[in-house]
Hints:
- The complex is a heterotetramer, with 2 copies of chain A and 2 copies of chain C.
- Chain A is an alpha/beta fold.
- In chain A, 46% of the residues lie in helices and 12% in strands.
- In chain A, helix 2 (23-47) packs across helix 4 and helix 5 (94-101) packs across helix 13 (285-308).
- Chain C is built from 11 helices and 14 strands.
- Chain C has helices at residues 3-17, 42-45, 57-69, 88-95, 98-101, 151-159, 221-238, 255-265, 280-291, 314-320, 324-334, and strands spanning 21-26, 50-53, 73-78, 111-116, 141-144, 165-170, 185-186, 189-194, 202-206, 215-219, 242-247, 249-251, 268-275, 301-305.
- At the C-D interface, helix 4 and helix 9 of C face helix 4 and helix 9 of D.
Amino acid sequence: MRSTALAPARTDERLTGLAGEPPGHRRYRRMRFIRRFEETLLRLFEEGALNGTTHACIGQEADAVAVTEHLAEGDHIFSNHRCHGHYLAHSGDALGLLAEIMGKEAGVCRGVGGSQHICAPGFKSNGVQGGIVPNAAGIALANQLAGNGAVSVVFIGDGTLGEGVVYETLNMAALWKLPLLVVCEDNRWAQSTPVAANLAGDMAARFAAFGVPVREVGSTDVEELSAIAGEEVGAVRAGRGPRVLLIHTYRLCHHSKSDDERPEQEIAERWLVEPLVVHGRRLDAADRARIDDEVETALAEVVATARALP
Amino acid sequence: MRSTALAPARTDERLTGLAGEPPGHRRYRRMRFIRRFEETLLRLFEEGALNGTTHACIGQEADAVAVTEHLAEGDHIFSNHRCHGHYLAHSGDALGLLAEIMGKEAGVCRGVGGSQHICAPGFKSNGVQGGIVPNAAGIALANQLAGNGAVSVVFIGDGTLGEGVVYETLNMAALWKLPLLVVCEDNRWAQSTPVAANLAGDMAARFAAFGVPVREVGSTDVEELSAIAGEEVGAVRAGRGPRVLLIHTYRLCHHSKSDDERPEQEIAERWLVEPLVVHGRRLDAADRARIDDEVETALAEVVATARALP
Amino acid sequence: MIFAKELGDTLRGALDGDRRVVLLGEDIADPYGGAFKVTRGLSTAFPQRVRTTPISEGAIAGISAGLALAGYRPIAEVMFGDFLTLMFDQVVNHITKYQAMYAGQATCPVIVRAATGGHRGYGPTHSQSLEKHFLGVPHLRVVAASLYHDPRVVFADFLGRDEPVLYVEHKLLYPQHLTLPVHGMVGDLIATSDCSPGMLPTIRLSAVPAAECAVSVLAYGYPALLAAKVVERLAMQEEIFAELVVPAQIAPMDWAPVLSSAAATGSVVTVEEGADGWSWGSEAASVLSRRLFGKLRRPVDVVASAPTVIPSSKTKEAAVLVGGAQIEAAIRRAC
Amino acid sequence: MIFAKELGDTLRGALDGDRRVVLLGEDIADPYGGAFKVTRGLSTAFPQRVRTTPISEGAIAGISAGLALAGYRPIAEVMFGDFLTLMFDQVVNHITKYQAMYAGQATCPVIVRAATGGHRGYGPTHSQSLEKHFLGVPHLRVVAASLYHDPRVVFADFLGRDEPVLYVEHKLLYPQHLTLPVHGMVGDLIATSDCSPGMLPTIRLSAVPAAECAVSVLAYGYPALLAAKVVERLAMQEEIFAELVVPAQIAPMDWAPVLSSAAATGSVVTVEEGADGWSWGSEAASVLSRRLFGKLRRPVDVVASAPTVIPSSKTKEAAVLVGGAQIEAAIRRAC
Ligand SMILES: Cc1ncc(C[n+]2csc(CCOP(=O)(O)OP(=O)(O)O)c2C)c(N)n1
Ligand SMILES: Cc1ncc(C[n+]2csc(CCOP(=O)(O)OP(=O)(O)O)c2C)c(N)n1
Ligand SMILES: [Mg+2]
Ligand SMILES: [Mg+2]
């Protein structure tokens, strides 16, 4: 099964994985790539080189990398406002994304979409919470009708569980056994609101109650997540209907570019178990340093190229 | 606790209950009243005396009678397109409702609202599925803020569980511990669609997953329902947050005035256990006949009065 | 065949001829076949592609969007046009956005069909013509059923293009027979069909040539039928001549035939069943007043329903909704 | 104080003075105080009546409706006006229906506040001015924030009446200072305030008396601020005189001050940031062309944004949204 995570255009294997590199290295590299891309963006914003807004996925890189690994040509990802990691893990297209956020003609959507509205083969995103879930289900229905065995994946956040259309869609997806995988990234916060102030009852039970099996995991370990994601994608692909992969994780940066009012202590603790730390331990220091370097150099080239674009 | 089911205006104790009558008689009478009101309406429609549409609650009378018994002055009911039973059990106001459906000035909403849009003290309805649930929750929030101990009750059907705003509201009601009772009348069908084609997963689990306790009962027995409804209303009134009373019942007539394409056999079986049959057995034949007569006479007067209205 | 059946036939033809066509909607499956029976028989013939749905208008629209993004041709039925409100987010922020916001890399040709309109006593939430709120949504075409337009032609256009469209079907048209122009006539009225490139045809109906008409009446859907009756009667009985202009597509508008008629008559009345104020006719009045500045004998008259709820009571409903009497009065004023 | 703070102050005053006032919205609680910080401090001061909500726009509106039906005065904040779409059903089929459909037996005075508008590069779904789709909803008032109207006066009006209202706050106004008329002046412009009974005031701004102005510019919200700058500059630098007419309430409109200005100048330009076509200005053009038929020198010019998605890229966004240049060009044309 060929991964869509390596789209032909504008990728750089220093960012997406060197040929023959062990999977563990590749995963680290990809997460590092996403992390550094986001950090670079935040720096560029501060510099005033970008306009609009951005939502960094720092802390959640493992989800994107783990899930996209199991997707194949023909599969489709629908993502949300916090879509950079998903997009980069899927396509590797740092230049297209950066140019997009810079509002340049070379951007994946020619600067029209911006940070939250990305489109590329097998990938779309929209910054309106909730509505992408039925959109992804519609793609799943198309796949079902076509009988092509393709999977439709949609990423949502914990806060998005506030939107009613999510439940309308779970119901219909379950009734119609659609090949839909909902990946819910519970990063404990929705903008300024902690999950406890937004969500009553039990998160996993909400999906189950609509007849959608849920796989729940609290982890920032890309290996663990990848194993589980593989099983979930496989089950959906096998035609057994929709499933939910519920990942409890954490957003390490602020919501968008604005203030972060969360308890410092809480954030500090999460930095100790963030994906790069957790998985990075598995690499020896030299490999890590080399990969970090390669990513850094490649990203610097991307930034330089993007800056020079008209 | 005074029942709001006896609003002062335009009621007739032959329809709502004679002073000093045993509760079992009163319940039978009220259900009979609702049944005969609906049957009368259907006849008037056939006659061409009415326009628009109507949704009869024949078969579900026990729900309305059981729940409204436990409501007090200051409590509020929000109902849906199938609201006649709820309204009559609440107010006894047959003339106001009939005049309304006849489009007369003396109607409860002067003929503007018609069958689905009724307003009277402590009662409202709207024919748009789902949206009344947050409306009722808002009334519950008002009661909570006022600290008046009043309960807000909303009636919905099984099919209405398709609307996302229902879940948005369950979540918020649970988060905020609103004094809201959702009565879900699962009558097995939504217009032409059987519950299995509309609903995946488990109906009760859907509420529970949002942290709202569910009391589930499959019954057309007004005594059983009344006991349970009393407990549920009591629990909500006690301030322990929202609850759901999920009643599995059956709609015996067609959806509105149009064709009924459901299996005849299925309907026939349900006629054997409809509320009047189940509860009627508890009354001796003479009492039943007398009550039937009184209801008939009173309703005939209502119809004659309504017809004569300008 | 009555319009509901013609439309059903059209949908059957679409399902038959185009494997990308998928029908979604509440209670559209057999034996019920939809609240207005338009889809009767279709789920039996195409069980995979004709799907009855839960009562979830938002998801119906949203799933349709996904189907369309994936290359299918979803046709979503809204049981009562009043519930288009629940699709508003999908229409405005998803369906009509995708193509342009993705710089043309995707298309989202969702077709939404909605049963609209009053005069049946269904009351405030089942009688509205809410399409005016969808006019001017960027990248949305709004098309109205009429008895002068063959739904087969209309749907062939929808399916031949990559754009989303809202198709409003006034309930009172369902039991009527189509009256398509035959040999340049509709009944006793001369019928011409004008069509700018890329637009759907606009039908012009009048007892005498436009140049001899005193007023142009611009109307769509059921009010167009009411207006045709008035136009015909006034011509026969009083030799008051008006030209009725009936577009299929009501937004964006093909102004050319309207301008041509209005330039000929020098006077315009617009008629719609939606509520007055910021309505279809407002844009018509705005555009025509500009494009024909100094050339109209009198201001454009916008006839619309009273801006309030639509009562259930027959008499009260009739007092709120535009009917033949208002149309006639407006035509007389405008002559 | 900047407008965001003035508004926050107004809300604080409302909560303080009226126990029926309840604020609902996403992320409005402290310490965050809302995406645009308007409600900062309020949840600390009024923890029971200022409630941050889940991301559930439909239920926020629906719960507000219930509160209002029960006699409270809910003020719901929509984080981005783009998501008003998700409230459309509650606004159209619930909130604005109840009073009339219940024959006056209930009122539902919900106040919805929405942060609207672009020019910040937020892209297609976070930059829109969708209020045009709410104009002409029967029984809904739509009011736009401006720097010429004291929000205290505006909210006192809202809370003093029993009607629902949508209040749109253009994001670019938040960091600006109010410029209320002082001694009949706003900066170097003469300011007059007109107000028909039951309406909110309309502010008229011009360098010279209206009778000496060549054109009336009708605008609201942020474009009114842009227009004021153009009007001021053209007056100072080129002695081109225009009268800017800024209503607070944009639907239903108080036409009297507009008619008075237009009658004096004989020429009208309307300006809005919403997408062109079936927009606020369409109704204005329709009404003014009718009411001033034969009295205007030239047709009413409607200036609105390009009817497409609002791009994220700064330059592309500027090409789509109405800016000072278009306003200036329209004024020059209209003189
Ligand atoms: C319909 C809608 N309402 C509100 C917003 C504003 N908004 C953007 S992100 C966000 C929080 C989302 O939280 P969550 O779903 O947990 O995702 P996270 O940001 O944590 O990844 C909100 C409220 C939106 N984009 N869409
Ligand atoms: C938003 C909305 N969508 C569709 C309808 C049309 N409709 C009226 S009743 C009904 C079925 C309702 O089923 P259920 O909730 O089970 O209530 P029941 O009729 O069985 O009492 C439908 C689809 C509606 N009134 N509102
Ligand atoms: Mg989150
Ligand atoms: Mg039902």
